Amino acid sequence: MYGARLTRFLPQLRRFKRHSHLFIKDGFQSMDVEDDLFRAPPAHPYQPVDLQLHVPADALTATIDLLCRAGRRESGLFWYGPRDGAGNGSVAYVVAPRQRMTWGNYAVSAQALAEIVHHLRGEWKPLAQVHSHPGLRVEHSNYDDRMVSSRRALSLVFPSYGRHTEPFPIGVGVHEWQNGYWHLFDLVSARQRVLLIGGTVRVEDMR
Ligand SMILES: [Zn+2]
């Protein structure tokens, strides 16, 4: 979240690209943290959409476990699953790509993401990108704005390297792309947009 350069997604990952404007950290090159931390407020307020992302409790447990496994380092994960005709998503797969992790940054190469994308089931779409922050601040940095791989997916930021204890989604930064801006939800909007449900998911740790 805190810095690095971006390159266009590898063109061979066409399947993912169809659904996304994907950017990815390239060479694990950090730049100055402060330069990239704070962003401007939205020009227009978020307009609630009548869509929901269904998250099995199993997926949330796996997500927190994967983030915590990284220790005192940021880490990034992806949630994939099917969408219905209206666009509501259901998380079916939680995966941690191969990546480099530091206290204030994580980096996923295009090759590491390709390892995931090339083995997705046909009906699975990118539903959310998840990453951890060191402290309680869970709003996107400027860098995070550019980093999210798909503007059709949500972006969730978990505080305290995944070690917070409040019931989801309290304390988690849920963001959605709308009108040129990654909006951070208030708690009411987060609860309407992201619903915990029952069920199990596939989990994979490729780190
Ligand atoms: Zn971040």
Sum this structure up briefly.
The chain is α/β, with parallel strands linked by helices and 207 residues long. The chain has helices spanning 14-17, 57-69, 110-117, 142-147, 187-193, and strands at 6-8, 23-25, 53-56, 76-81, 89-90, 93-96, 100-102, 105-107, 125-132, 154-158, 173-178, 181-184, 194-197, 202-205. It is 18% helix and 29% strand.
CATH topology name, in short, is: Cytidine Deaminase, domain 2
Query: Helix share of residues?
Result: 10-25%
CATH class: Alpha Beta
What is the helix/strand order?
EHEEHEEEEEHEHEEEHEE
Number of strands: 14
Write up what this structure looks like.
The protein is 18% helix and 29% strand. It has 207 residues and is α/β, with parallel strands linked by helices. The protein has one domain (6-37, 51-205): 3-Layer(aba) Sandwich (Cytidine Deaminase, domain 2). The strands form 4 sheets. The chain has a 7-stranded mixed beta sheet with strand order 12-11-10-9-4-6-14, covered by helices on one side. Strands 5-3-13 form a 3-stranded parallel beta sheet. The radius of gyration is 16 Å and the shape is globular. 40% of the residues are buried. It binds zinc ion (ZN).
